[in-house]
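FIELD: query
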Amino acid sequence: MDAVSPVPSAAIEVVALTKRYAAGTPAAVDRIDLRIASGSYCCLLGPSGCGKSTTLRMIAGHESVSGGDILLDNRNITDLPAAARGTAMMFQSFALFPHLSAVDNVAFSLKMKGVARAERRRRATDLLERVAMGHLAERKPGELSGGQQQRVALARALITEPRVLLLDEPLSALDPFLRIQMRAELRRWQKTLGLTFIHVTHSQEEAMALADTMVVMNHGLIEQVGSSHRVYNHPASEFVARFMGGHNVFDTPAGPVAVRNDHMQIAPEAEGGAGVAARITDVEYQGTYVLIGLEQEGVEKARQAVSVLLGEAAFLARPWTPGERVRLSWAEADVRVLGPGVQRPAERAPAPASTLRDDTAAIAAFSA
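FIELD: result
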């Protein structure tokens, strides 16, 4: 991709941000506080219904705010229309107009602003060249691959010269191979442009690959904020440890602890010794490693499932089979003590009701 002149970036801060769709119901987003550093790549991560997409839409101005504030470089944009915020949004479906060529899709927002045809097409063509799509400028979306459509959607978002780019699960519609390729391109574009990217995803792998800052959400609240390395290696709560995967959670007299499954030791039960009694339930060969699923004995059902990750060589040296009874152990240095997590929404006072902001024209002009 050709060099791109960096655009002045911005920090986003949300203060007590709340979204409630109806009075007396749990908040979709419940008074969250978050600061996203200028020029960083931030991923909002969590299961379906956790509030991550609602948070993104409120920042974009496509969803009304029930309470709290949104600041862009200390400028309060909470009540501004989408077109006046300095943000642009890429949607999960790319939302390209099927009857328009790639260049006309990119130029659409400038057309809505009244920019002359020659000028808007010149600027759109320049952006398509920058994302290696200039040679396909006259093709319509149906004539483009998923990756090519994503590049057109990116160019369309960038033509508005946003301070912050918002991405709502932009890779979920792509096949696995292309998804890996395109996330590398997204990261490269973010670094080249110097923009602040805020990316919503439900994929732990995607977030860890992309994020400078990872924000794990649950039930409209933020469970943990930190670097990918910090969140994965030092989960703040049982929810984070289980959601991020790769961890086993055990109850101890001091409370729950987490141990990464690649830090577990496994030995036949007949050998005796200290450890957690378990039975192997399944063995999955994954190429460079083998994932062994087990059930703990003598614990409640919700706590039974655990796993051990073995390198291929270690597994081939001592194969394990379903049904074997084993003992699991770990080094004290690998134990992570888990906190209680954040307060649940039901324990919080209700926020005022709100309605969906009517920004149809702005969305069509800047994010269609």
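FIELD: remark
The chain has two domains: 12-234+345-367, 252-337.
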